[in-house]
Specification:
7 helices, globular
Length: about 180
């Protein structure tokens, strides 16, 4: 069994996939990974659209700029997840933000995204988080209702390559003891 830290170190953004469909078991495990995500006061603000229809994926790809390295992945991955979040819920008490940072939806969706991507990697699947696209147009295509935001797209499938490891900052470059110091 692989150590969890090794799993984190080994996961890469994958943008090219084999044409093989995800098994229902793998798909269900990915959905369970999102279900298990932590969130502010257990608000669970995520909504996940699972897109398998080639026509829908093609329409969503049209919202992604051609210069985006994930342009083709959005359409060619066997499954495309569209991660949405309910606004003004996470981080709110009695309709008011509980902190000066306001809506914690993005934070909670980041946790759910990381759970999904790490679970996919543990199953031998590849993913990439896509944030550079026309959110409003894609939300309209996917019929995302008012009060929710489409935050990211996550193509998923069996990778047809292994990504390379990017350079990482040294731990000493981003840690501070007792006080922030530069």
């Amino acid at each position: 069994m692989t150590n969890f830290i090794d799993t984190l170190k080994d996961r890469r953004s994958i943008r090219r996939y084999k044409s093989e469909n995800l098994s229902e078991d793998h798909l269900n495990q990915l959905l369970e990974a999102v279900q298990c995500s932590q969130s502010w006061a257990n608000s669970q603000v995520w909504e996940l659209i699972v897109i398998k229809d080639p026509g829908v994926k093609s329409k969503i790809r049209e919202t992604v700029p051609g210069k985006n390295p994930s342009f083709a992945a959005v359409e060619k991955a066997p499954v495309l997840f569209a991660l949405c979040g309910k606004t003004k819920t996470s981080g709110y008490f009695d309709g008011e933000p509980g902190s000066r940072l306001g809506d914690w939806m993005m934070y909670d969706l980041g946790l759910a995204t990381q759970n999904l991507c790490n679970a996919a990697h543990s199953l031998g699947l590849g993913t990439v988080v896509v944030g550079w696209f026309d959110h409003a147009k894609a939300a309209q295509i996917l019929k995302v209702p008012e009060g929710y935001e489409l935050v990211c797209l996550i193509p998923a499938g069996y990778p047809d390559h292994k990504g390379s490891s990017p350079e990482r900052r040294q731990i000493s470059d981003f840690t501070h003891e007792n006080y922030f110091s530069k």
